[in-house]
Amino acid sequence: MGINDFGGGQTPDADVLVVTTNDVPGYQVQKVVGEVFGLTVRSRHLGSQIGAGLKSMVGGELKGLTKTLVETRNQAMERLVDQARARGANAILMFRFDVTEAMEGAAEVCAYGTAVVIVPHA
């Protein structure tokens, strides 16, 4: 079952639906595969840290940090979906992110949820 079968807003080639809800309207959970996660830790380079420090003194968006966190989030989510796919799931329910500072200047991002197999309601 491809993502187009769900009518979701993800990329057309995605085969694993990722939602923050407990269910998907019009579908039932046929099998709970279990918890899945994608984890990555990223650090900012020195130039980005200096720029962010100066920018934080005057206010405004820290664009270098934002870019790093978006890339990190996407990588964690890719790993989450890869894990679910490898375990035979076609959806991830109750998707969440957890972000912590792993060390000075490094962010740990964990994407997690419950991998399931869903089928259309009969």
From TrEMBL:
InterPro entries: UPF0145_dom_sf, UPF0145_YbjQ-like. It comes from the Bacteria. Signal peptide: none annotated. It holds the Pfam family YbjQ_1. Belongs to the UPF0145 family. This is UPF0145 protein QIT00_07730.
